[in-house]
Design a protein that fits this description.
268 residues; mainly alpha; MetI-like fold; 2 domains; two-stranded antiparallel ribbon; 11 helices; cell membrane
Length: 268
């Protein structure tokens, strides 16, 4: 007899059901769903009872992802612009920093930020950000910036030089032509690249356990360490959360990409 069937009989007995026909019907009904139920019901109930604990890790994962993407944008966009329009020392410095960040494992970057540089606690008035979270955001954000710079470098380069020349022809300075003519088109063309970048940063948040942060995956590990029979159920539950986060964000970016796509044959 399956575990779910045993639970059904136990439930019937606890309710004082004397009718063996009723007990048999209950057992049959429960066992009829065994074909789609993956895992043990008792272990699934253990996961549901600890959903609030996983929720704390989910909030940290989402917070790290959003903050890192924003930091990556604030640093990566100017870096991409320097690679396209800069020259001399500034361009070489940006290119070298990008190569170093992209070529260094993310766990090494996080360890350096936390243990070597010693990122301080950030006070926001209404609250504070711990050194570990600050180091996580800084490490993930700079790594994201190195990749986002390449997204923006490609999107800026994709805008025809004639657009820049047209802006100069109507009296704009070079900076104004880049800002008002090239950048709006480049941003619209860079939207698809953010789908991959978001997914990468979301997955990389699981590495912050190395500096003592308990994000979603780490809290899941804590749960199936506590109840070793629930390994499959915890992993499936966490995988479903990651899937929902990735799917909804990618669909939202798909919509933005379609909504703001530059019509074919036009430049703006």
């Amino acid at each position: 007899m399956s575990v779910s069937g045993s639970l059904a009989l136990a439930a019937a007995a606890s309710l004082g059901a004397p009718d063996p026909t009723a007990s048999g019907a209950l057992l049959s009904a429960v066992e009829s769903i065994d074909w789609w139920l993956v895992g043990d019901p008792a272990d699934w109930w253990f996961v549901v009872r600890n959903a609030d604990y996983l929720g704390g890790g989910l909030l940290l994962t989402v917070g790290l992802t959003v903050a890192s993407i924003l930091l990556g944008f604030l640093v990566g966009f100017p870096a991409g612009a320097v690679e396209v329009y800069g020259d001399g020392l500034s361009k070489r410095l940006v290119e070298t920093a990008g190569v170093v960040l992209r070529g260094t494992p993310i766990v090494v970057i996080l360890l350096v930020m936390y243990f070597v540089l010693g990122v301080p606690q950030v006070n926001l008035g209404v609250g504070s950000i711990s050194p570990a979270i600050s180091a996580g955001i800084l490490g993930l954000g700079l790594r994201s910036a190195a990749y986002q710079s390449q997204i923006f470098r490609a999107s800026l380069s994709s805008v025809d030089d004639g657009q820049l020349e047209a802006g100069r022809a109507v009296g704009l300075s070079r900076f104004e032509a880049i800002r008002y003519v090239v950048v709006p088109q480049a941003l619209r063309r860079s939207i698809p690249g953010f789908q991959n970048e978001f997914t990468i940063v979301l997955k990389d948040t699981s590495i912050v356990f190395a500096i003592g942060l308990a994000e979603l995956l780490t809290r899941g590990y804590d749960l199936f360490t506590e109840q070793t029979t629930a390994v499959l159920e915890v992993i499936l539950f966490i995988s479903a959360i990651y899937f929902v986060l990735t799917f909804t964000t990618n669909r939202a970016l798909d919509y933005l990409g379609t909504r703001y796509a530059i019509p074919e044959g036009e430049s703006a």
